């Protein structure tokens, strides 16, 4: 039976935790009651992105967007919209300023400014359906690669596209692939780093939950390009839904011989396994991650040797982040020229950001590189709640730094952000209002990295501890002014001497808040005053 | 899976997901106001769906709307086709709806005797 309506129900972790499944169950019950189940197709999709409004449903063919759904709303949607074609006005999105009611998802400013490459299928297809993925050009890239391209051609295409690593450091992806391909050492491995650990970051989780096949296909392509037959996806245990959907996708890919021996009847084999991490932040660091895959303790080791030379089990290893892989199939299908036409001169393509903190539209956003922070906060993010004043945005999580209001016109790309002393990082973007104390913010992130420090090298283990002690004294008004210099000195030394990325970047939140908000630190020390009213609270 | 299988699945699913996003060759909107329902719009809708399923037509969107204001000609179906003017069929029955599928959707000829207007 042909269907009249397709209900795209967001089944991302955020919509599920705000009651998406209770709504779905009630919906199914109502459909049965009115005997129209056969006219309506319910598709559970990955994250639609606008988590603030969850649970959300988009009703096609008209694209009507319903938000903040409760189980009792199912009755109205069925009886009015699905039975009689009347849109349920009270469940639509309302623009904040104009109170204008918006019916279609495509007209909501949050979606209008976005360009989806990585998240192209999230919220559109059922992530557990291989057929739906194929309907969206899935596995066409792998077919093209295996039948028409030599491994060198694949690498050239990725190099020409200008794609850079989306996990934080921004290393040119094509060059990394080439290094692994040219590395001698027999067996090689491909790894996907899905150990997303920055507080407030959930880009990779959403890709894995919403479009797991895109990562699996890209890893298979990477295996062909670099000459590897075995891949591992390292996912943190805190992402049960992502793991479930990945497992289901890998199983289906094996059943259809899209993994395993002689893929597409060609002389190419590729196997893929999941490794579940135990929740250590440091395991997002590539050498620690590989030790963990090997079954060793997850602590980093010095580089060089780089993974491309000696990685997993001492063999040449390609390790890329989830979002990086999610770009690959589109580059193969649409070409490096198309990809490199998006973004800025040195930062190509798009970047996914997780918008969080003091912002109206929290959620997941994909924009071309070079979109300004201002556009991000006010146009896509819908401004700050209760019209609070924007103070700063923390980018790059505990490894990054803040961008204060005076630089709000900064384009978000690798170079521009680096000039301000922070990093794009994995893409966490936390917006802060005048209610945030910058000393407290720095303390929060340092507490996090201090807690997550593996303890292997002294500069990270002892250095971050000492820095945290000083911050604690400042926030209690017990520090001396000279200690600010010590804080900077310590931070710079740790950046230079720590063993891995975790330690090297741990001082960033402190150094960057000191750079832009030194007056707040001084107020704490000299006047025992916290302008945001966070520190010095009287104990009850 | 062989390359041919991939192509087959893609062609089949492409149409389905396109429909899902509201992209179709023809969009047929059944008036589902109280007047329409009373006049038998639901049966017309079911007949349309049943007929396009039987004929395995996958590029046509069938949907519904509220009252169109032409209550005495219900059940009514509006036909939207890209590059063409919207046309309206009225006083439909399930049998007439099946004729629309065969003559209009499949053969591309407007069913003149069922027309309400051509605008």
TrEMBL record, chain A:
PANTHER family cross-referenced by the UniProt entry: NADH-QUINONE OXIDOREDUCTASE SUBUNIT F
InterPro entries for the chain: Nuo51_FMN-bd, Nuo51_FMN-bd_sf, Nuop51_4Fe4S-bd, Nuop51_4Fe4S-bd_sf, Soluble_ligand-bd, Thioredoxin-like_sf
Record key words, sorted: 4Fe-4S, Homeobox, Iron, Iron-sulfur, Metal-binding
Record family assignment: Belongs to the complex I 51 kDa subunit family.
Keyword Iron-sulfur: yes
UniProt name for this protein: NAD-reducing hydrogenase subunit HoxF
One annotated GO molecular function: metal ion binding
Domain NADH-ubiquinone oxidoreductase 51kDa subunit iron-sulphur binding: 439-484
TrEMBL record, chain B:
The protein, known as: Thioredoxin-like [2Fe-2S] ferredoxin
CDD domains assigned to the protein according to its UniProt record, in alphabetical order: TRX_Fd_family
Alphabetical keyword list: Iron, Iron-sulfur, Metal-binding
InterPro entries for this protein: Thioredoxin-like_sf
Lineage: Bacteria, Bacteria division TA06
Record-level Gene Ontology MF annotations: iron-sulfur cluster binding; metal ion binding
Keyword Glycoprotein found: no
Entries under PANTHER family matching the protein: NADH-QUINONE OXIDOREDUCTASE SUBUNIT F
Coiled-coil features, chain-numbered ranges: none
Keyword Methyltransferase: no
């Amino acid at each position: 039976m042909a269907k009249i309506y397709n209900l795209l129900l967001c089944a991302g972790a955020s919509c599920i935790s705000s009651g998406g499944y209770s709504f779905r169950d009630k919906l199914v019950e109502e459909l049965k009651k009115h005997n129209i189940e056969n006219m309506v197709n319910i598709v559970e999709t990955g994250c639609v992105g606008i988590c603030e409004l969850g649970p959300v449903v988009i009703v096609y063919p008209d694209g009507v967007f319903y938000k903040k759904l409760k189980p009792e709303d199912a009755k109205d949607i069925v009886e009015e919209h699905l039975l009689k074609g009347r849109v349920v006005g009270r469940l639509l999105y309302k623009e904040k300023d104009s109170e204008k009611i918006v019916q279609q998802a495509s007209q909501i400013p949050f979606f209008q400014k976005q360009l989806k490459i990585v998240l192209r299928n999230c919220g559109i297809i059922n992530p557990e359906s291989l057929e739906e993925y194929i309907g969206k050009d899935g596995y066409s890239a792998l077919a093209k690669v295996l039948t028409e391209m030599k491994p060198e051609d694949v690498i050239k295409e990725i190099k020409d596209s200008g794609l850079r690593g989306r996990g934080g450091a921004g290393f040119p992806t094509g060059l990394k692939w080439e290094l692994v391909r040219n590395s001698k050492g027999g067996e090689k491995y491909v790894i996907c780093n899905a150990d997303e650990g920055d507080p407030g970051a959930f880009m990779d989780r959403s890709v894995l939950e919403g479009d797991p096949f895109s990562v699996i296909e890209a890893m298979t392509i990477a295996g062909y390009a670099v000459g590897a037959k075995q891949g591992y996806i390292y996912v943190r245990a805190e992402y049960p839904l992502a793991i479930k959907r990945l497992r289901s996708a890998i199983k289906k890919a094996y059943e259809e011989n899209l993994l395993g021996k002689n893929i597409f009847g060609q002389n190419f084999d590729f196997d893929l396994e999941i490794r579940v991490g135990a929740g250590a932040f440091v395991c997002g660091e590539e050498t620690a991650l590989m030790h963990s895959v090997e079954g060793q303790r997850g602590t980093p080791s010095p580089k060089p040797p780089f993974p491309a030379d000696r990685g997993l089990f001492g063999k040449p290893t390609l390790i890329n982040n989830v979002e990086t892989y999610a770009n690959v199939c589109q580059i193969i299908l649409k070409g490096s020229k198309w990809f490199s036409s998006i973004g800025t001169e040195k930062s190509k393509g798009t970047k996914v950001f997780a918008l969080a903190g003091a912002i109206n539209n929290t959620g997941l956003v994909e924009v071309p590189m070079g979109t300004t922070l201002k556009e991000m906060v006010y146009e896509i993010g819908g401004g700050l709640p209760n019209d609070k004043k924007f103070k700063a945005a923390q980018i790059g999580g505990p490894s990054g730094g803040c961008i204060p209001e005076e630089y709000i016109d900064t384009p978000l790309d690798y170079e521009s952000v680096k000039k301000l002393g922070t990093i794009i990082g994995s893409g966490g973007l936390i917006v802060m209002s005048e209610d945030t104390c910058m000393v407290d913010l720095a303390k929060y992130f340092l507490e996090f990295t201090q807690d997550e420090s593996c303890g292997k090298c002294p500069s990270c283990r002892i250095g971050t501890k000492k820095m945290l002690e000083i911050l604690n004294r400042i926030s209690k008004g017990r520090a001396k002014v000279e200690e600010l210099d010590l804080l900077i000195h310590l931070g710079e030394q740790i950046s230079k001497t720590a063993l891995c990325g975790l330690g090297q970047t741990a001082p960033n939140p402190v150094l960057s808040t000191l750079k832009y908000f030194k007056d707040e630190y001084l107020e704490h020390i000299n006047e025992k005053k916290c302008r945001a009213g966070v520190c010095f609270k009287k104990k009850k | 899976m062989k390359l041919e299988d991939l192509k087959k699945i893609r062609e089949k699913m492409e149409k389905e997901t396109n429909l899902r996003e509201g992209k179709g060759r023809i969009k047929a909107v059944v008036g589902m106001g109280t007047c329409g329902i009373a006049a038998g719009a639901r049966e017309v809708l079911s007949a349309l769906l049943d007929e396009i399923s039987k004929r395995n037509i996958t590029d046509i969107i069938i949907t519904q709307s509220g009252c169109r204001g032409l209550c005495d000609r219900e059940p009514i179906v509006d036909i939207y086709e890209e590059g063409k003017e919207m046309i309206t069929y009225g006083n439909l029955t399930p049998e007439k709806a099946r004729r629309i599928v065969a003559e209009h959707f499949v053969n591309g000829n407007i069913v003149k005797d069922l027309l309400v207007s051509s605008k």
